[in-house]
């Protein structure tokens, strides 16, 4: 296969190398400086200041041999699972029920891979989930055991919840119960008509063969009713039980699920699946038939998962990026189609640096929103105008309209983006070995009567109070952009990017912030409140003057961390008198 070129036009920011999409043999153009590309060759081409990074990799489709995956011959139950399933079997015996119980989907897959899974879904062949839960509860009561958390999750087609689900809690595990079903989709809706089905029909309606396996509780055996589930699991392949285009058009959300599982397990995609996922019919169906909430949930699982870069790379390579991350129709400045490559490249950079720094500083929401901020970094200066003509960051639109995620997510990511320029100003000061302090710290604000030796602490303190506990995310992204005035072509072949150096830069700045005693400066309580300020100034009501003095007093407090209330008030009175005399 001959290499091909994917040109990405970039903004003036520094770009980092992104692994090639779908692991195909590629050559990607990048603007520099960029990251060192392990096992890849950087070569200069004719265009000044542009280099490419050549990667030779395996085609990620069924034409290449899938990974050899260690799969167990049978499901091995732990003690809790044995006790839970024994209760179900005893329920069948107690009521003389001719019912087969199966564990469906991801639990079976994970157990065969030797992984623990606490998401147990029970599929029932001849009654509804709620009917069987009532039987289990009645049986448990007959033995003196009380059932906990029994409830019904109703159908919610608008949220892709097509079937009523019964739920109960046994031995501290939540168990879901549904009946086996067959689905029939109409042309213009992803909401199917549901009917009772056989186990085989249920298996074929699943998204992927590796998720179509059953564990039959009655017989204690694994059932592979598509005939491919175990084979595809062993060979590491992402395959749909039915023709992929039909599967995706029935429920386009399955495209994103295929990407998520492919990235999570490092499995390869069937060739026909790749074609189907990237075709216009499926992309149009994904845009029209799937709720934004469900899309947002899948994207969030990818970003929070173990392979966020690979997942976003697949989305970009399958030309789904702008289907998923739709922008407002009137953005300023205009965003080019090629910007998706830059988004993935920044995500790649941030992910690699997070791994190098160590995960303890970036866990949970810290890691999740840091990666989102990296992914959307090329959009940080892009805006649109709302109905009132107000300029709004397009990142807000992506989170709220394209992904329907919680309002705090765009607020935090936008704060991280806005912190970057200030961090870029502070990094050389925080990491300097020179004990002398600069005469000025340009932070876009006046530091009132702050001693020169305290200006760095005050400026950094104000910045951290803006971004709060996500300051490390802002610092990390800033280290990727540092220094902001570097000539992108200068000595690149000799220096490349040196990811280790970026880690050292981050750690040096982080240590300096911690040594300044600012790690949780946003929790700092003001020594003087608004009423005290009004008393000193002889004001009857608050307003801009009070807010101005609150900033001044906070700056004084940051400059004098051991200062007392009395000292702070004395400074305020003295400063106010001086100002009054001048005026």
From TrEMBL:
Gene3D superfamilies: Beta Polymerase, domain 2 (3.30.460.10), cca-adding enzyme, domain 2 (1.10.3090.10). One of its GO terms (cellular component) is mitochondrion. Residues 101-238 form the Poly A polymerase head domain. It comes from the Eukaryota. Signal peptide: none annotated. InterPro entries: NT_sf (IPR043519), PolA_pol_head_dom (IPR002646). GO terms for biological process: tRNA 3'-terminal CCA addition. One of its GO terms (molecular function) is RNA binding. Keywords: RNA-binding, Transferase. Belongs to the tRNA nucleotidyltransferase/poly(A) polymerase family. This is Poly A polymerase head domain-containing protein. It comes from Salix dunnii. The lineage of its organism: Eukaryota, Viridiplantae, Streptophyta, Embryophyta, Tracheophyta.
């Amino acid at each position: 296969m001959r290499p091909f070129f994917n040109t990405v036009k970039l903004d003036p920011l520094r770009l980092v190398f992104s692994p090639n999409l779908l692991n195909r043999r590629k050559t990607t153009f990048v603007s520099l400086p960029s990251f060192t590309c392990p096992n890849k060759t950087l070569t200069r081409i004719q265009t000044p200041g542009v280099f490419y990074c050549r990667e030779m990799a395996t085609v990620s489709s069924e034409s290449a041999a899938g990974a050899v995956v260690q799969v167990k011959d049978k499901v091995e139950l732990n003690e809790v699972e044995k006790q839970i399933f024994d209760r179900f079997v005893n329920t069948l015996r107690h009521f003389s029920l001719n019912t087969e119980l199966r564990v469906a989907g991801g639990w079976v897959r994970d157990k065969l891979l030797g992984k623990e899974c606490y998401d147990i879904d029970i599929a029932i062949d001849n009654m509804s989930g709620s009917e069987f839960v009532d039987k289990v509860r009645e049986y448990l009561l007959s033995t003196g055991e009380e059932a906990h958390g029994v409830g019904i999750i109703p159908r919610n087609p608008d949220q892709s919840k097509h079937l009523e689900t019964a739920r109960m809690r046994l031995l501290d595990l939540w168990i879901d119960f549904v009946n086996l079903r067959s689905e029939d989709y109409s042309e213009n809706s992803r909401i199917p008509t549901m009917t009772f089905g056989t186990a085989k029909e249920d298996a074929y309606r699943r998204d992927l063969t590796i998720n179509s396996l059953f564990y039959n509780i009655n017989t204690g055996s694994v059932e592979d009713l598509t005939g491919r589930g175990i084979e595809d699991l062993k060979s590491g392949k992402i395959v749909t039980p039915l023709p992929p285009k039909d599967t995706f058009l029935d429920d386009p959300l399955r495209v994103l699920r295929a990407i998520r599982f492919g990235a999570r397990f490092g499995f390869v995609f069937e060739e026909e699946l790749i074609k189907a996922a990237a075709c216009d019919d499926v992309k149009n169906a994904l845009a029209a038939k799937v709720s934004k909430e469900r899309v947002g949930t899948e994207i969030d699982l990818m970003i929070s998962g173990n392979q966020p870069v690979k997942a976003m790379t697949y989305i970009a390579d399958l030309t789904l990026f702008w289907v998923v991350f739709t922008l407002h129709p009137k953005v300023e400045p205009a965003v080019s189609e090629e910007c998706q490559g830059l988004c993935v490249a920044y995500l790649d950079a941030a992910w690699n640096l997070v791994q190098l720094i160590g995960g303890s500083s970036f866990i949970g929401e810290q890691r999740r929103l840091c990666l989102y901020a990296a992914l959307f970094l090329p959009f940080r200066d892009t805006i649109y105008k709302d109905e009132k003509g107000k300029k709004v960051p397009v990142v807000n639109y992506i989170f709220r309209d394209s992904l329907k995620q919680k309002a705090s997510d765009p607020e935090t990511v936008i704060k991280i983006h806005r912190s970057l320029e200030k961090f870029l100003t502070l990094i050389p000061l925080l990491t300097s070995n020179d004990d002398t302090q600069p005469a000025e710290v340009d932070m876009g604000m006046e530091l009132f009567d702050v001693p020169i030796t305290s200006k760095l602490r005050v400026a950094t303190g104000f910045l951290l109070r803006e971004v709060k506990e996500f300051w490390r995310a802002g610092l990390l992204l800033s280290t990727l952009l540092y220094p902001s005035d570097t000539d992108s072509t200068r000595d690149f072949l000799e220096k490349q990017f040196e990811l280790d150096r970026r880690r050292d830069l981050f750690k040096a700045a982080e240590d300096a912030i911690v040594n300044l005693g600012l790690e949780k400066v946003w929790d700092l309580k003001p020594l003087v409140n608004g009423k005290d300020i009004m008393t000193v100034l002889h004001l009857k009501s608050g307003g801009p003057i009070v807010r101005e003095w609150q900033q001044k007093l906070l700056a004084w407090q940051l400059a004098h961390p051991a200062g007392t209330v009395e000292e702070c008030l004395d400074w305020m009175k003295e400063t106010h008198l001086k100002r009054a005399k001048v005026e």
